[in-house]
């Protein structure tokens, strides 16, 4: 009885609101065919909109549904909110539905609401984004094919307006299909290309908003940029781990397109990036694409690609020459740091100029203090030259203390380096100075010790 009284109160309140509407407002909807075929139908439509709206505001979705259905069936063109709120109503009801069969029917209706929104209010790209993400949320891999087609089309239509999260789901859905052997690797590669180009446009669009300085828009754009960065990491991880990005697959696709695109800077950048990511740096396609790109646009990325190319050919001096150009011209601090570390490891393994390794690694740390690989490179340089430090065995072996210090620092600043750092620590702590030998030189546990030679660094004695 109380429930009936409450609902009757809502009804009365809605009627009162209708009664208080100005004559001008009444005439507006009474003369608008979107609300119904005649004045009676239009009055009924407005009443239903008001009634379901009140329940919707109260988050009473089941009662809102009764009058929402009347609006949806009798005057769907009246307001886009019918579809926006309708989707919200159904998603909330789906959330609490226990019966599996009923839930599936509710999901089907939700999908139909999205379809009808496109019919009446267009915005196909944006609506397909919501529809695809929701379908994947509820049906996952079972709907991967449908989801992929929806979100692929959405990205193609929305371009820089694509919202964060959509691109990750698109990539996940195509990877699901590849793993189920429903599509081949070329489709995954095509999806990756679309994902990355869409992300580039969306990031540029939101950066432009931030640069514009509109106080109302900037916070939203900044948050969107954070989410798009997460999308970027997700897409890269999904592509790398999919198994589709093999050298053979990439070369088969892009080799056939090379002659037609060899003067296209953006195409060459895309191909060299994909080949590099798949460790196809020794392929003929990577070589000619990198050289063509550098000739057209001598950039940091092109120089680094050539550096890797010459390294694979064992032309070490040329490789280091191009690494130097890449490091100097790269503005992105993370990439600059990465390039310095890559060159440091080449000097470590091929040139064996250990002070130069440290110099390059410290340049990497200036650009990105959290690059643990730089500390590992320094530690390996110390360990590799330990037997040339000082004149006594205890002096040689003290260099391993300094080396392990760097491995410890690596995992402290960069958790992704923890496994490699622990591996090196376990290798080189075996070569620490002998306690008795150290004692003969007046070195005790915990003492501060300066490692000599070019290392010239303080460390702590431990046995």
Observed structural traits:
463 residues; Serine Threonine Protein Phosphatase 5, Tetratricopeptide repeat; 2 strands; 23 helices; two-stranded antiparallel ribbon; 75% helix; mainly alpha
Characterize the structure shown:
Strand 1 (448-451) and strand 2 form a beta hairpin. 39% of the residues are buried. The protein has helices spanning 2-19, 23-30, 39-57, 61-74, 81-96, 100-121, 124-139, 144-158, 166-179, 185-212, 218-242, 247-255, 258-261, 265-277, 284-296, 300-312, 316-329, 333-351, 354-367, 372-384, 393-413, 418-428, 435-440; strands at residues 448-451, 457-460. It is elongated. The protein contains 23 helices and 2 strands. Among the domains are: 1-122, no CATH class; 331-463, Serine Threonine Protein Phosphatase 5, Tetratricopeptide repeat (Alpha Horseshoe), CATH 1.25.40. Helix content is 75%, strand content 2%.
Structural class: mainly alpha
List the quaternary state of the chains.
Answer: single chain
- Assign the CATH topology of the domain at 331-463: Serine Threonine Protein Phosphatase 5, Tetratricopeptide repeat
CATH hierarchy: architecture of the domain at 331-463: Alpha Horseshoe
Strand order of the largest sheet: 1-2
Say how many strands there are: 2
Name the helix and strand elements from N-terminus to C-terminus, one letter apiece.
HHHHHHHHHHHHHHHHHHHHHHHEE
What is the helical fraction, as a range of percent?
over 70%
Beta-strand percentage range: under 5%
Write the layout of secondary structure elements.
Blueprint: H1 2-19, H2 23-30, H3 39-57, H4 61-74, H5 81-96, H6 100-121, H7 124-139, H8 144-158, H9 166-179, H10 185-212, H11 218-242, H12 247-255, H13 258-261, H14 265-277, H15 284-296, H16 300-312, H17 316-329, H18 333-351, H19 354-367, H20 372-384, H21 393-413, H22 418-428, H23 435-440, E1 448-451, E2 457-460
Antiparallel strand pairs: 1-2
